[in-house]
Every structure is written in C-alpha cells, then in structure tokens.
Amino acid sequence: MRLLEYEAKEVFRTFQIPIPRGDVAESAEEAVRVAEGIGGPVVVKAQVPVGGRGKAGGVIFAENPEEAGEAASTLLGRGLRGLRVRRVLVEERLRIDRELYLGLTVDRRCRSYVFLASGEGGVDIEEVAQRAPEKVIKYAIDPLEGFRHHHARGVAKRLGFSGGLMMKLSEIAKRLYEMGVEMDAELTEINPLALVGEGFVAADARLNIDDNALFRHGDLVQRYGGGELEGLSEAEREARGLGLTYVELDGDIGIIGNGAGLTMATLDTVNFYGGRPGNFLDLGGGAPPERVEQAITLLLNNRRIRVILLNILGGITRCDEIARGIVNARRKGGPIKPIVVRISGTNEEEGIRILAEAGLEISGSMEEAAERAVALSRGGQT
Ligand code: GDP
Ligand code: MN
Q1: What separation in Å is there between the alpha carbon of 352 and the centre of ligand 2?
Q2: What predicted TM-score, i.e. pTM, was given to this entire model?
Q3: Ligand 1 atom nearest 204 alpha carbon
Q4: Residue spans of alpha helices (H) in the chain
C-alpha cells in the first residue's frame, strides 16, 4: 500500500520526523483557510501516488492565501500523470538551503534493509545512482544489530556534516529506520530532506507498506486504504473491477499478456525495438473470452493507444478462447486500431484459424510481434 504524501507525513510526525506545518484540502476554499492559518508563503502540492509531481506541474508556490486558492483550483480535479487530483497539501514554504535524500528499502540480495543517503536530493535519485553512483551512500543493515546511533552518525558524517547538524541528521536517519521497521515498509523516502537554517525538515515523504503485512496495520488501512483506489484513473478502476491487472503508462502501444512475467517481458521487448508501451495489462490465468474482450475494449477506448499487441502463452488459457475474445471485441465496433497477435500453446491451431478468418495475421514470435507493433505505432507498414 502506497500512502499519499500527507498520509505518510502524518505517520512521520508520530515518529517525530520533522515535517512542514500544513494541512490537506479538498477545495480551493479549504486551501485558502489552511494558508491563512499558516500565514506567509505556502506551497500547494497535488496528492497523487506518483513521484515527479514537481516536474509535472503538481507543486505550485503561492505567496498568499488568495494565490493558494488559485493553485488549489488549478490542481484539483485535473489529471496529473493520468491520475485525478482530489486533494492538495498546503504547507508553509520552506527556505531551503540544501536538499538531501534519505531512504530505506529492502535489499533482497542481502536479505535485509538497506539505508540510502545522498547529498544530492530533490531530484530523481535513480538518475543520480546511474549518473554518479558514488554520490549515493548504501548502508546494508545487519538485521540482528539494527541501525544504531553510531551507524546513523557514520552516514551523516559521510554526507559531510559535523557537530550539531550531524547529530540532528543522524537522529532523523535513525527514526526513519525505526519507522520503516515498525510500519513494515517496503520503501520509505525523504526526498528532499531540506536543510533549513540550523535544522532539517522532510519536505516530501514517501511510505510504501508491504501488502503482506497490512494485517498488522488495520487502523492505517481503514484510515487511508481508499487512497490506493483514489489514485487510479477511471479506466484503471474499471479494470480492477473486471479482475484485470492494469496500469497506464505514457506510450502509445497497448500491451496485453497473460501472466505478470510474460507481460513485463513484452513491455521490455517493445522498449528494445524503440517503442513506447502505453500500459501493462495482465489477463491472469485461464482468461475466458469475455475478459479478453473487455481488455481489448478498454485499450480501444484509451485514446493514447494507437496499436494493440497481445502476447499470449496458452496453458490453462486456451488460444481459441483468446481468439474469440479478440474477434468479439472488434465486432463490437468502437475505434479501429491495428491489433498484433502472438499466441502459442493450447489450441493454437484453432486460435490461428479463428483470427485468420477475421483477417488478423499472427506473428511467429514475441520479437516479431513487438517489432511489428512498433512499426505500426509509427504509422509505418509491416
Ligand atoms: P515530487 O516532485 O513529487 O518529488 O514532489 P516534492 O514534494 O519533492 O516537490 C518537488 C520539489 O519542489 C522539491 O524537490 C523541492 O525542490 C521543491 N519544494 C517542495 N516544497 C518546497 C518548499 O517548501 N520550499 C521550497 N523552496 N521548495 C520546495
Ligand atoms: Mn520529492
């Protein structure tokens, strides 16, 4: 479960990690009131469960309550990276001297938590890790020993701090670890941790809780559980209701697979050939024709999608049923888009026959199908 920023910050507060003064608002009027309560310049932030909101225009600075109201009007109800904004967080504007990054995640290879820190916060940390890996400190935590004061101080020193600031930074690092463990976090991040004068404030907050541990956090699920669905687009919600695993992406090639691994491999292959996947859609096992039909209809109605690519391995899933679903979806009408199909496995011949009758050609391999879908997405011939 991924908490929204303001939800994560409420948890941060209970662990005494410093956060800016502020409150959540669901309307422009509420945003004005929160800003009045704060007094002075504020920042208005879209509450959607994705990163990079700043770059996408989801973080707006306001000098006074009136501007805060305008910022809230701009953000509320609009889409941000495909997600509808239903709430904004209005916070005091910090006078940031420096931005750091602190994070805690699970390292499956070490079978332990790993603490991450960088003096280059605020930006995309994955990008820093790629460009300049030496700028991201990784500290593997011994699960029996935990992350003690001296470990945390070591990290703060490696970030170049000393004296009082070093002590304050290490205290926050230690609390972040304690919160992560207690909350069963898969990932928790402060990006940026803002240096403001002689102290640090978590300007942004992220807390993803391991779904397998949610039974230990019933109160949190009750309080925030709706946030997950809230962050989804209309189509994603609809898909969830149909039992499909569907995530919208930025590209124009619609992808349908059966099984998460195969679907991911299809996305990678499309990427490899220079195409841009527009979604991840996993039919799951043994998909009946209706579900295939619903999945295709979903992508036909998604305006960003120009080409649909199906990659199906028949097992419990029968290729002839998949083929029937495809044909039915096309028969229903709606926008016409090229469909590239690769099916293989149980009842393959029958599936191919049904598709051929409907005028659809079959690709012999995933690579061939991906290449063809990419060419079609560029308006090219195959
Ligand atoms: P994200 O883009 O989704 O990670 O959203 P953030 O909450 O991290 O905000 C994006 C950026 O806005 C941050 O990296 C900061 O540089 C900036 N920012 C956010 N809050 C403040 C603030 O109170 N004061 C100032 N000066 N900058 C802020
Ligand atoms: Mn951030």
Answers
A1: 48
A2: 0.69
A3: 7
A4: 5-14, 28-38, 65-75, 125-131, 149-158, 163-182, 218-224, 226-230, 234-242, 260-272, 289-301, 319-331, 348-357, 366-377
